Amino acid sequence: MDINSCRYVIDCQLSEGGFGTVYAATRLDDGQKVGIKVVSSRNTKFISIDGCSKPLPLEVALQILANEGPRVEEIIQLLDWRVESDHYILVLERPVPFEELNWFLLQQMVTIQEDVARIIMCQATSAAQTCCRRGVFHRDIKLENLLINPDTKSN
User: Fold this and answer.
1) CA 81, CA 20: separation in Å to the nearest integer?
2) Residues near 100 by beta carbon (within 8 Å), at least 6 away in sequence
3) Which intervals hold domain Protein kinase (predicted)?
């Protein structure tokens, strides 16, 4: 798959839903692991933001705004994007390894320790505050939208 000036190979489908389809992929130039999200443009709201000559799909615009300024480790980076006539594509950073927080918690044999829960909450709060400072109110913070390194120790 070619997106702008980069070529990607799709590894597998990660998820699918009303939000679109997300694929695990690899950028061929440097081997970087990425997520490619393909979303239908039907019923998509477009907005204008500073620095872009044309209105963008809301999700693309919010990703651009959330990524402005110094890099914040807790926020997934938008690496590239493209808008087509009937869909748009986002190329996103894909941490390896990663797992949705809800699956991580379900797989724990015991309740996670308070210090681990505190770290997770601090990181989620920091990311949400950074988004707000950058003009983005997330509106969908939930366990499925929080990614965690499954190698994190819970004991």
Assistant:
1) 14
2) 143, 144, 145, 146, 147, 148
3) 8-155
The token duo for 92 is: 């996103």
Checking if the pLDDT of 61 tops 70, the result is yes
The overall pTM is greater than 0.85: yes
Q: Which of 30, 115, 140, 151 is catalytic?
A: 140
Tokens 């402005």 correspond to 68
Active site residue 140: yes
Closest CA relative to residue 75, chosen from 12, 26, 43, 123: 123
**What is the C-alpha to C-alpha distance for residues 40 and 18, in angstroms, rounded to an integer?**
9
pLDDT of residue 150: 80
Tell me where in the chain the CATH 3.30.200.20 domain(s) lie. Answer: 2-93
Other C-beta atoms lying within 10 Å of the C-beta of residue 135: 11
Region of residue 78 (left: phi > 0; alpha: psi -120 to 50; beta: else): beta
CATH class of the domain defined by 2-93: alpha beta
SS3 content of the chain, % helix, strand, coil (to 5): 25, 35, 40
